Structures are given as C-alpha cells and as structure tokens.
Amino acid sequence: MANGNYDIQPRRLIISVFLIIIGVVIGVTLVSELRLLPVGGAVGDSSVVGPRPNSPPVSRGEQAFVEISKAVTPAVVNISSTRVVRREESGSPFDDPFFRRFFGDDFFRHPDTPQRKEQGLGSGVIVDATGLIVTNHHVIAKADEINVILADKREFKGKVIGTDPKTDLAVVRIAADGLPTVPWGDSSVLDVGEYVLAIGNPFGLNQTVTMGIVSAIGRANVGIADYEDFIQTDAAINPGNSGGALVNTRGELVGINTAIFSQSGGYMGIGFAVPSNMAKSVLESLVKRGKVVRGWLGVSIQEVTPQLAKEFGLEEARGALISDILPDSPAEAAGLRRGDVVIALNDQTIESASQLRNHVAQLSVGTRAHVKIIRKGKEKRIEIKIEAQPAEMAQAGEAGGNGTALAGVQVRRLTPELARQLGLNRTDGGVVVVHVEPESPADAAGLMRGDLIMEINRRGVSDVDQYNTVLSNTDKDVSLLLLVHRKNRALFLTVTPYQHER
Hints:
This protein is an alpha+beta fold. It is built from eleven helices and 28 strands. The chain has helices at residues 2-33, 60-72, 97-103, 137-140, 276-289, 306-311, 330-334, 353-361, 416-422, 441-445, 464-472, and strands at residues 76-86, 115-128, 132-135, 145-149, 155-157, 159-164, 169-173, 195-200, 208-219, 230-233, 245-247, 253-260, 271-275, 295-296, 299-303, 320-325, 341-345, 348-349, 368-375, 378-385, 387-388, 393-395, 409-413, 431-436, 452-456, 459-460, 480-486, 489-495. The strands form five sheets. Strands 5-4-1-2-3-7-6 form a seven-stranded antiparallel beta sheet. Strands 22, 23, 24, 25, 26, 27 and 28 form a seven-stranded antiparallel beta sheet that branches. Strands 8-9-10-13-12-11 form a six-stranded antiparallel beta barrel. The protein is globular and about 120 Å long. It starts with a helix and ends in a 7-residue tail after the last strand.
C-alpha cells in the first residue's frame, strides 16, 4: 500500500505541474492576442519601441492626405499687416462692419489711442518660385508694412504688386528665389462632395491643415465681393485662414480661402473660397498691367425665375435674362435686345446671371465671343466683340450683390451724351442710375433708371469714385438716405437693405 501511494503522488505532481504550464502558456497567448501586454515586451517594460498597440494601419486614402499636406504646407505663408491710423481717419478696412461680422471683433486688435497701430493676420499662397504670393485684398488693404513668414521661419517684407477689391484678391511679392509652390488646379471641374483641404494660419497657428468637402459651387450674392463665384466648403476655416490655400486630392490649388459665415466669429461649418480660375485670371492681369481689366457686354441682367421662364417661353428656369441694354455698348452694337435670355457663352452653358457676369469679366478685351440666346422661344447665336468695362462705371451688385442697400443698382458718370439720351439737363455733379434690379431694395424704395444721385446720407456724390467711397465707408446693414434729381425736381428716398438670415 505504501509503495502504491508513493507511485501515485509523483504522477499527480507531474500532472499538476503539466497543467499549470499549459495554463500559463494559454494565458500568455490570450493576453498577447488581446494586446493587454505590449507585443514583444514584458509586464512593466515601458522601454519597448514600436507602434502603439491600438493604432490601426494608415490607409491608402489617409496616406494621400498626408502626402498632400507635406507637399502643400511649405508654400502657404503667414502674412501680418500693420498700418498707423490717426483717430480722425475713417474708411479703414479693418473697421468695416462687414469684416467684423465675418471674422469677429477680436480679429483686428488695436489700442484706443489718438494714433494707433492696426494689425491684421492672414495667409498667402506662393504660386511662383520667384516669390509671387496670392492673398486676399482685405488682408493687406492700406497696410503700411507687410511681413511674410515662410514655413521654414524665414521672414520677408512684402511688396504689393496689385489688389482687386471687386474679387477681394491681392498679389504680393517677396525678394526670394527657389521657393516651394502650389500648382494651379482647374476649379471649373470641381464637384460637390469632393474632398478638399484648407491650409492656412488660423489665429496665428502656422500651417494648419483641415479637411472637408465641397459643399456647393458657384455661390453668389453672399455679400463678400462684387464678383462672386465662391466655392463653399465645410473644411474648418477660422480668422487667419484668409488668403490661404484650398487644394484638391491631387494637391492642386482650386481656391483661395476668403471668408466664413459666423455668428460667433469662429468656425460654423460654412466657408467660402475664390475659385482658382478667377484668382489666376486676376493675378495675371495684376502682374501684367498692375490692375484688372475686365470684359464688358453692356447689359443689365437678372436671374430667370420659374415665373419669368413661363412668360418667356422657356422650358426651365436657367440662363441670364437681359433686362436692359446700355447705350453705346458692345451688346447694342451686336444686336442683343431686352428680353433675350443668354443660355451659353462660347459654348459654355450659362445657368445664372452671376455666372454670365463672371465669365464675361474674365474674357480678354478685343476678343469675339459667341453668345447663344433664346429670343421669342427660338435659339439664336450672336457674335459680340468684348470691350473693356468703362472706368466711369460702378456697380454695387446685381440681384442682391454685395449686401448694401444699393445692391442691384448700376451707376455711371453723367456725361453730356448720357444726359442727352436720358433726358437730363444737368451737367454738374452726380452719378446717373442706368439700371435698377427688379425687386431689389432700391426698386422697392422707388429709385428709377435715369435718376441722378447727388447725395448719400447727406454726403455729396459728384462722381463714381465718391459714390464708391461713400458706400465702402457705410455699414452695409443700415438704410441709405438718397438725394436724387428726377425730371427737374429734387427728392429724398430712403433705401433699406433686405435682412438676410444669419
């Protein structure tokens, strides 16, 4: 019996040890598989080098965004502008309520002193290796000093080559060479839903990259600039992003970030960028001529509503309806008529009035364009010679335009010939109204074609330059008191802007 017990106990001991070893092996295997321990490391060993256990592998799509960011961010610069302003100065773009609304009260910072320094923050995109930079007009407007900081921390003084307030674009040059650039993309082929990256310096945080999609294209009547064809995106854009790059998934520049819609001064999911095709055209004109020369037809146009489409025998509400032909204009010479609906320009379909206006503006002066119209239910093609927009002509916007109370109003300098054609006897100061957009605030107030505007808010308006100056220094959300001359008598009109939803 004793010998038997001695035989059984060793066997039990061996079996127990064997089971313990199996348990340990299974336990370690399960723990390793569940990643409760670092792979290849022991408990408490924090010196193990390798990828974090919970980090998934980078996908091909994610890697593409990484490569785009690496390629583009070196070409996006930080721009800071400074100007000295005396208290009695007015008309500063930094005090414009419009930019306060889009960028917040703290975007432009300055002490309340008789003579103060105003500072603006923004971004820019290097588009030429010799130091050519595209940015926004409002970033560098009236600046006494422009500082440009590259991604590698080098600093340069910027020189303004030219600005175009009507598109809110500007071109700056720095004395450098061999710089990284962003290649131009074709904004006309962008699709809604396409991925885009916004790159800039929000709140001074250099080379910040955010991702989103194209939310809409061809946005007009936003109230940011005179010529609007914005790309709308939900990529996060904040104060300081202005003038930065909007790039597609090929790393091409498709837009210049310009503004955001915000009730708080920060990102709310709606940002706007100037399309690259428009920006490239403006840049080339500013570099070659120092100013932007735009094509001009000499027509007043409006959107085609479903009701108007029915009245003019159209199958659908698209195109641009010609509501007026200006005297001595290319349109008059070519035979265009009031009531014609433009549906194509140089074989490119025209969907809206703003689209026609933007396309015409980008045409070269002196070229001949082919316009397809619908007249009395029939299609007709007309060739028209593009001329330069008259220097004495100003436009506060069409069909909602730039958000002022005079949106939809076209004015021109009162020349003796124009006075004769409109039946005006006056030859002194004032600007003559050549078109009032139907259903606009000015139309509702009773302003008419042929009226001579002599005062705006009791400030004299003797020419187009003064007209523009008064409007640019006036809050866009307030009513305007006009003194006009009509049929040998003077009268006051109050024009109240329509309030848009915020």
